[in-house]
Amino acid sequence: MRNLSDINVIKSVMGKHGVTFNKGLGQNFLVDPAVCPAMAEAAGLNENTCAIEIGPGVGVLTAELAKRAGKVLSFEVDNRLLPVLAETLSDFNNVEIINEDVMKADLPKIIEEKCKGMEICVVANLPYYITSPIIMLLLESKLPIKNITVMVQKEAADRLCAEVGSRDGGAVTVAVSYYSESEKLFFVPRDSFLPPPKVNSEVIQLTVRKEPPVKVENEEFFFKLVKAAFSQRRKTAENSISAGLGINKSIVAETLENAGLERTVRAEKLTMEDFEALAKLLNV
Questions:
Q1: Which contiguous run of DSSP H or E holds residue 87?
Q2: Among the listed residues 255, 267, 81, the one whose alpha carbon sits nearest the alpha carbon of residue 169
């Protein structure tokens, strides 16, 4: 099998099929041979695992997944890469390339039909421009996923893996923490890719929770509240929640006090339990 971390091999295969790099689709190809094996190992794959990948590129991570998992489903939206992948992954009979946008695909149906009875793990080098939407789609869909091991922009990793109630936290931090336990695994410098992106990356793992850390009566309202609270970070939570939810400021102020919080508190200081209490009091 050819070394798909060798840029000369990558260029040769892509050139053979008339394919060029597409920055618009976030295509930066890994040339550090240690990264993909480490990601595949961290996911804990075995013959009973169905690994789901998003954006395989030329198949360097796909190959590592195929060596370890019973089945690999890889979503690739770029039609031009299909013949490239057919060539680079020809040694494996447990890989299926799905030529669909994962954001539009019927994931529950695909998983039910193609991964029946198997443990589901998502492993991917995510395009930076769509990192959070993909992660939230996977978590909010409440699919039977064990864990999500992904490479993301370092700044996104800091936000996704921050503690709720810390300075680095945001609305997505609360959502990720609600659905999963997050962990940073290892740093990946920008020169691990060709063409090199402008930023460094980090591999993180989200282990999907069986139950959320707090009991929320109305999840839809809970997340509307969280989004509103972080919508104007420079303002107090009182002002942001009032504006974001269209609730009179005096009511929000009273609710904060009833929850044992200062009226001047900012959203990044609120814990998961604080958001739960506020959602319960405001959702009447």
A1: helix 82-88
A2: 267
Ranges in the chain, pLDDT < 50? 25
Q: Where are the domains of the chain?
A: 7-208, 219-282
Render pLDDT for 212-255 as a digit per residue (tens, 0 to 9): 999 999 999 999 999 999 998 788 999 999 999 999 999 999 99
pLDDT value at position 19? 79
Are 216 and 222 contacting, i.e. CB atoms less than 8 angstroms apart? yes
Residue type, 232: Q
Looking at the domain covering 7-208, what would its CATH class be?
Answer: alpha beta
d(CA 104, CA 125): 19
CATH architecture label of 219-282: Orthogonal Bundle (1.10)
Tokens of residue 55, six digits:
């954006």
Amino acid at 171: A
For the residues of 205-258, what is the DSSP string, one character each?
EEEE-SS-SS--S-HHHHHHHHHHHTTTTTS-HHHHHHHHHT--HHHHHHHHHH
